[in-house]
Amino acid sequence: MAYDPDNIFAKILNGDIPCDKVYEDEYVLAFNDIAPQAPVHVLVIPKGQYVSIDDFGANASEAEITGFYRAVAKISQDLGLVDLGFRSIANTGEHGGQEVPHFHMHILGGGPVGPMVCA
Ligand code: AMP
After folding, report:
1. What is the per-residue pLDDT across 73-114, written as a single tens digit (0 to 9) for each?
2. Which of 18, 54, 76, 116 has the most neighbouring CB atoms within 10 Å?
3. Does residue 100 line the site of ligand 1, with CB under 6 A?
4. Looking at the annotation, which residues are catalytic?
5. Is 98 in the pocket of ligand 1 (CB under 6 A)?
6. Average pLDDT of the residues of the chain
7. Cα–Cα separations (whole angstroms), residue 26 to 59, 64, 118
8. 82 with 76: CB under 8 angstroms?
């Protein structure tokens, strides 16, 4: 699937649409989900143009991949989620229920987040 430069997260990255920013560095932007599914629900997105986790893992540079996961670690630590735990999810494609075609990791926590997969 080709990257759509008009997707909503691309518009957040280029400043066309605002977001409730949680963290930003050279590699990622993290912001609160507009429709939170848990007391804490943050989305972490790479600044590069990657459609999905498989696109990111296959085509991003080692620096981008390292930067992304270091940021996930820092954000979860800074949000106080590490001791009691949290869930990280990357929905992918049609069967995965991915709505926005720019790779993003959901970080959900701040309380029990329920069963892993709801039918
Ligand atoms: P997914 O289904 O994994 O693609 O998740 C997309 C997520 O993006 C959903 O949880 C939406 O609530 C969230 N979302 C959509 N638009 C925005 C926005 N403008 N700001 C923050 N979160 C958004």
Report:
1. 999 999 999 999 999 999 999 999 999 999 999 999 999 999
2. 76
3. yes
4. 104
5. yes
6. 97
7. 18, 9, 35
8. yes
Q: Where are the domains of the chain?
A: 8-109
CA distances from 33 to 36, 58, 65, 106 (A): 5, 26, 22, 8
The average pLDDT across 21-50 equals: 98
Determine the average pLDDT of the residues in 4-31.
98
Q: Residue 29: how many CB atoms within 10 A of its CB?
A: 20
CA angle at residue 9 from 108 to 22, to 5 degrees? Answer: 45
Among 100, 102, 104, 117, say which to mutate for ligand 1: greatest number of ligand atoms within 8 Å of CB. 100
How far CA 82 is from CA of 26, 46, 57, 108, in Å, comes to 23, 22, 24, 11
